[in-house]
Amino acid sequence: MAEEDIQAKLQNYRTAPFDARFPNSNQTRNCWSNYLDFYRCQKALDAKGVDTAPCDWYKRVFTSICPISWVQKWDDQREEGNFPGKI
User: Fold this and answer.
1) Which of 20, 34, 79, 80 is 20 to 30 A from 70 in CA distance terms?
2) Spelled out in words, what is the top-level CATH class assigned to the domain 27-86?
């Protein structure tokens, strides 16, 4: 049931919903937090051997609000091992 709910939400997803943690119009922290949450979620679920589909929510949020250049820079930093965030 929960998996079906997640899949339905992902299919109906349009843009990042309101997040009370980030009430202001500047969405930089929201972008950063969702990027980190996506990779933390993947890491945690991979360690448990569970499907990582629920993590797709975070990816959809950060890809809708983060500039592509930021995401590319962060991806490069993760690959090079000098990413500043704690995943």
Assistant:
1) 20
2) mainly alpha
Entry pTM: 0.77
Written as one letter, the residue type at 37 is D
- Residue by residue, DSSP assigns 37-79 as HHHHHHHHHHHHT---GGGHHHHHHHHHHS-HHHHHHHHHHHH
End-to-end CA distance of the chain: 29
86 burial (CB, 10 Å; 0-12 / 13-18 / 19+) is exposed
Q: Return the residue matching tokens 């490069």.
A: 76
CB 81 within 8 A of CB 67: no
Residue 4 has pLDDT above 80, yes or no: no
Q: At residue 13, does pLDDT exceed 80?
A: no
Contacts of 29 (CB under 8 A, 6+ apart): 22
Q: Percent of the chain having pLDDT more than 90?
A: 57
